[in-house]
Amino acid sequence: MRRYDFNQSNADHTLFLKHQQGKVTSPIIYVDDMIITGDDTKEISRLQEQLAVEFEMKKLDGLKFFLGIEVTRSQREILLSQRKYVLTYWAEVGLLDCNPPDTPIVQNHKLSQHTNQVPTDKGRYKKLVGKLIYLLCTRPDIAYVVSVVSQFIHNPSEEHMDVVKQILRYLKASPGKGLMFSKNNHLNVEGYTDADWAWNVLDRKSTSRYFTFVEGI
Fold first, then answer.
1. N or C: which terminus of the chain carries fewer CB neighbours within 10 A?
2. Is there a single domain that holds both residue 89 and residue 50?
3. 121 and 30: one domain?
4. Domain annotation covers residue 201
5. Quick one: residue 120, left, alpha or beta (phi over 0 = left, psi -120 to 50 = alpha)?
């Protein structure tokens, strides 16, 4: 990519950028999967031809699926979701017939560690939480509760496992929920933040939350 005059991003080393004549071309590469986007159609076509000389390439149409993330688009909106990933996840843990709760964790929970806690399968707990972490790519609504259960990954109990299962049941209500990017008539950036002021029962630290909206909600 550098030989083709692309600059590697410092924020994400799988992302490359090329600016010329006021236009941008941006490929992102993960192992043998690639997305090429931008507003320079000539440069995109040239890059595809250059890569096809060196590698066996399969040219697909508009982006629909990438690393477990499904892409659905219309003229005004783009939706990123992980529906298939969630459905496969349920099949693995046997929760396809469960009833979904209204929230991923009970309100004002006091999840902590205790000397007399009942231990659970550490390997299984770690695997389930790891998959939930990847799901955060498109499900910020479970970001807080996943951060909570991640704190106990080295010494989980049955109580902690019950919360993980509640998250999984919660996801059943809307497996296709994701991030919606809509086309609006402005470029406003709005941010909101809050903290719970030392509510953590383990270390008395605060948990901060924030939302950032670009071009509206």
1. C
2. no
3. no
4. no
5. beta
48 backbone dihedrals φ, ψ, rounded to 5°? -60, -40
Q: What is the pLDDT, as a whole number, of residue 212?
A: 83
Q: What is the pLDDT of residue 80?
A: 94
Rounded to whole angstroms, the Cα distance separating 141 from 136 reads 8
Residues whose CB is less than 8 angstroms from the CB of residue 34 and which lie 6 or more positions away in sequence, other chains included: 27, 28
Which pLDDT band, with edges at 50, 70 and 90, does 217 fall under?
Answer: low
The count of structural domains within the chain is 2
* Residues 116, 156 share a domain: yes
* Residue of 207, 202, 199, 209 lying closest to 160 (CA atoms): 202
Domain that includes residue 125, residue range: 79-183
> Would you place residue 132 in the very low, low, confident or very high pLDDT band (cuts 50, 70, 90)?
very high
211, part of any domain: no
